[in-house]
Amino acid sequence: MIEARSTFRSPREVLFALCKRQDWKCAYCGQEMSFDGASSLTPAIEHIIPIVRAGRSEPDNLAAACRTCNSSKGDLTAIEYRAREKLRAAEALGDMKDRLIAKAEFFEARAKCLAEEAARYAAEACGLRQIAGPL
Ligand SMILES: [Zn+2]
Questions:
Q1: 73, 90, 110 — which closes off a domain?
Q2: What is the distance between the alpha carbons of residues 108 and 15, in angstroms, rounded to a whole number?
Q3: Domain range holding 32?
Q4: One domain, residues 51 and 37
Q5: Cα angle value 36/134/12 (rounded, 5°)
Q6: Cα 59 to ligand 1 centroid, rounded to whole Å
Q7: Are 129 and 103 in the same domain?
Q8: Taking the complete model, does pTM exceed 0.85, yes or no?
Q9: What is the mean pLDDT of each run of 10 residues along the chain (135 residues)?
Q10: Ligand 1: distance of its center to the CA of 64 in Å?
Q11: Beta bridge partners of 43
Q12: How far is ligand 1, taken at its centre, from the CA of residue 89, in Å?
């Protein structure tokens, strides 16, 4: 169990714990991350549901991702990001049917994540949860 809110764990310690948990593989592309190699493969703390989308800095919402994936993902949730990457691959290589299926899956993922985001804000408004906290 990784305790991100602990007062004695720095963000760097949390990042190392996440990398160790994932065997130093990026949560999205699966490439091996390192502090010694290419800067694109330097690990970063990744919020599976971004803070700006009412995600929290808690262990079950954190992963380690390479800088390339982390910056490419932006404010998408992990589910949306994976669907978008599948859509991009279909747009580059797939036939029309593959593209339309991938597009439908992306919008389905987006709708699901936006509905969940709305529920998080509603819960926050009702005082049922705190959206964001310190790392
Ligand atoms: Zn990656």
A1: 73
A2: 31
A3: 1-73
A4: yes
A5: 15
A6: 19
A7: yes
A8: no
A9: 61 94 97 91 96 92 96 96 96 94 97 95 83 52
A10: 9
A11: 66
A12: 16
